[in-house]
Write a structure and sequence with these properties.
alpha+beta; Beta-Lactamase; 2 domains; five-stranded antiparallel β-sheet; three-stranded mixed β-sheet; 10 strands; 35% helix; disordered N terminus
């Protein structure tokens, strides 16, 4: 079996060792609270820390939360195309995390799954849909990201630090080390602290989905007079984004020109920065952008902070 990330409540081949009876944190929270907005979900994460005897001082020891509610220790196993999930086991939620992720990413996945427990207890009419906007005004995954960020990087302690050292890649790296989270998690949290002043973008070298649809399979029989569509050269495109820069919309799959500092960072495998024109949706906006290449599952991506 994989070694648990935290706690003594390990799952073994022949049984399970429990430190305490399970107490559902979401049900306990809902005894005195209602959930009608994102702020209420954030309050749930504050409740988890308070109930577990944790302050807002970093780093947040998520093991205390697991132990306080008598949950099984999170188990690390290979998970295809996801970072975490939760399954029922002997009447208690069992959090599963991807074994291939670094400890800082696993910690965030555990926080994400703890937030998911709240949604399981909400009445069916107000459960946020995973893919669509809902009564909360944003998608479920984004709610979980914001709430998990608050659990591990509480606003009470994170905000003054973020304001003191300013908005930059270097600041995010400092705070990631202080709170023992990933750089991506720290960047997301920093953009929360600077509303409408920054957007964090993950770029990937790839084709647009529409380009892939037009590609003719190599196995197709050639037809006289018909010229198959060859794929154009792939471009650095938006794979994921978080935040809001002056209300400008950044669509997924939007590409960046080759003369951009983003492309230079990818091509040279070195950090790059500078003020330049950023193609936001239908508008080009001049902004300062910092970029850093990273590896994800052996593939080179670029992280960018636009501010």
């Amino acid at each position: 079996m994989e070694k648990p990330l935290c706690g003594d409540k390990a799952i073994h081949l022949r049984g399970i060792k429990l430190m305490a009876d399970y107490e559902n944190p979401a049900k306990l929270f809902l005894e005195d609270h209602s959930v009608e907005s994102l702020a209420d979900v954030i309050a749930y994460t504050d409740f988890l820390r308070k109930e577990s005897g944790l302050s807002s001082d970093p780093p947040i020891n998520i093991k205390n939360i697991i132990d306080r509610f008598g949950m099984h220790a999170p188990q690390a196993i290979p998970l295809p195309q996801q970072q975490g999930t939760t399954i029922p086991f002997l009447g208690t939620p069992q959090i599963i995390i991807h074994a291939g992720d670094p400890a800082s990413r696993q910690k965030y996945s555990i926080a994400h799954e703890l937030v998911e427990l709240l949604f399981l207890e909400l009445p069916g009419g107000i459960r946020p849909d995973r893919l669509k906007e809902n009564i909360f005004g944003i998608k479920k995954e984004r709610i979980c990201q914001k709430a998990a960020g608050n659990l591990l990087m509480p606003r009470d302690s994170f905000y003054p630090r973020a304001m003191q050292i300013g908005l930059s890649f270097q600041s995010a790296e400092i705070l990631a080390d202080v709170y023992k989270v990933s750089l991506m998690a720290a960047l997301c949290r920093m953009t929360d602290m600077y509303p409408k002043q920054s957007i964090f973008i993950l770029w990937q070298l790839r084709h647009k989905p529409t380009e892939l649809k037009k590609k003719v399979p190599e196995t197709q029989i050639e037809i006289p007079g018909f010229h198959p569509t060859n794929l154009p050269e792939p471009k650095l495109r938006v794979a994921w984004r978080y935040g809001d820069y002056k209300g400008q919309f950044m669509p997924v799959d939007k590409s960046i020109p080759k003369d951009s500092s983003v492309y230079i960072a990818w091509e040279n495998n070195q950090p790059s920065s500078g003020a330049e024109i950023i193609p936001f949706g239908s508008y080009n906006v001049k902004a300062f952008i910092e970029s850093k290449p990273i590896l994800i599952n052996g593939e080179r991506y670029v992280l960018s902070l636009v501010r």
